[in-house]
Write a structure and sequence with these properties.
globular; 263 residues; mainly alpha
Amino acid sequence: MILLAILVGTLTAGVGSVWLAAFLSFGVLARYTQHMLSLAAGALLATAFMHLLPEAFETSVDAHSLFLVLLAGLMFFFLLDKAELWHHGHEHSHEHDAAVEQHGDHEHHKHAPTTGIWAVLVGDSVHCFGDGVLIASAFMADLRLGGVAAVAVLAHEVPHHMGDLSVLRSGAADRRTALVKVSLAGAVTALGGLLGYWLVERLQAYLPYFLVVASSSFIYVALADLIPQLQKHLTARETAAQIAWLATGIALVTAVSGLAHGH
């Protein structure tokens, strides 16, 4: 009974939050595609600094160790981005050389700006795995508490997944592909729940590290990929709108995280 409740709760929280985010992003807010990049940056930064890192540092784990993991995570996602760029350049170098010979174009080839897609998916999967362990822990303590935890996770994941979908869409992925990839990452919540059911006491010790690794991916994507795309010469009105959507992303995650902690 408890195992079934954990499975239902984690899938509802992990995948349900993605579909709700997709409904908002592709439906109600679909016409604000450019503004969604600002919202995504705000949501990712707020998720890292207002939700994940505080939870990690509230544990008994040494702060120096957590900062070391954060630094290592940032370096890892930097190298992951480099590998993605190198692969992209290698894949298209022959096509570009042929085009240069044919058209006499001697300008340097410019790579399409990377959007940290793999960093987002890896970080999201780690984050969702941690959420699954937390939900399993709550269900094993009390079924009602587990239900509240699942709803809380679903609520605070919606604005974050809206950011994820925006990042993938900015990387030229179509809506269906973006939804499938983020849904698969969300489904890792169930894996965390199932493993948490069997190994909850042992995995609890590693939760702070999961939270910090997920934080490093969100911070990297926001600062290395999204914020640079927002640094354009804009009118005062466009700049104000950009700041407003950035603040909205921060406010949404902060508000729902506060509600989740309150419950």
